[in-house]
Amino acid sequence: MNSWLAIAAGGALGSVLRALLARWQPWPGLPLSILLVNVLGSLAIGLLWGWLHSRGPAADSLLWNAVGIGLLGGFTTYSTHALDVLRLLEAGRILPALGYAFGTLLLALLACAAGLALARHLAGPG
Prior knowledge:
By secondary structure, the chain is mainly alpha-helical.
């Protein structure tokens, strides 16, 4: 039961943080805030997973449930990203839509890998 509560509390907080950050639009018409959310969330989840795994089984920990699944799962968003891509396409902005769609995927993967590598580096050998 504690795991479910941790996931719910983390998810609620992550969703609120995403909604607050989504209000920031440095370039109207280009959803950079959601790009930032997804890249930061990917970096954080890679870092968290690597850090937890350096200390033992991560998948069963309350911290993983609260922060990894809950907070970061609520913070990052694929559905908003997909909607933003479709809105750009509907506006006839094909190149920005494709750049945003594939750029987010690439940057999020690189950020997750960087977070994992950083956690492993900080954990040291073994």
